[in-house]
Design a protein that fits this description.
Elements (H helix, E strand, L loop, with lengths): L11 H13 L4 H32 L13 H4 L4
């Protein structure tokens, strides 16, 4: 994997806390940020794939065993006996 340097601007307090978190996890700040970005990108990709899968299912529809014919009316279902 080829690497490339990136310059980020962040609040000083955030950098300080992120460095402390990275040190507590025995990682570098770069490693912590890379892992966080990889997680976010993976989540977004997984969400997109799940959404496309569900939209395909909705477009196809569900087989309810009725063969496209509904044998009851709204009024008959809502009749009070």
């Amino acid at each position: 994997m080829q690497k490339r340097n990136v310059t980020l601007s962040m609040p000083t307090d955030l950098i300080r806390r992120a460095k402390a978190l990275a040190a507590a996890r025995d990682k570098s700040l770069s490693e912590l940020l890379r892992e966080s970005l990889e997680e976010k990108v993976s989540e977004a990709s997984g969400y997109r794939q799940a959404m496309e899968r569900q939209l395909k299912i909705l477009a196809t529809g569900f087989d309810l065993g009725l063969r496209g014919k509904i044998a009851w009316s709204r009024d008959s279902v809502n009749e009070r006996g």
